[in-house]
Protein: Cytochrome c oxidase assembly protein COX19
Amino acid sequence: MSTAMNFGSKSFTPRPPEKGAFPLDHFGECKAFKEKFMKCLRDNNFDNSMCRLQSKDYLECRMDHQLMAKEPLSKLGFRDLMDPPPNQSDGDSKP
Structure:
């Protein structure tokens, strides 16, 4: 009795991963950023709230090198670490 299955001519078309799954950084383009982030985590007993700047830098590197989809940093939880828009001056802010 044969256990081989024949799926016919149907072919599988791969799709890009959903958010949360990244392609591997095969060329090490963001390795330095990853190492800084991991060192920060180790130095801070893996409290990721202490390493948000390193995390932001790492994700920006991944986006810059097409290792993840471009997303606004505000959508990734870094609104407080973003620079204000250049047309806003510190003295002209309204309540």
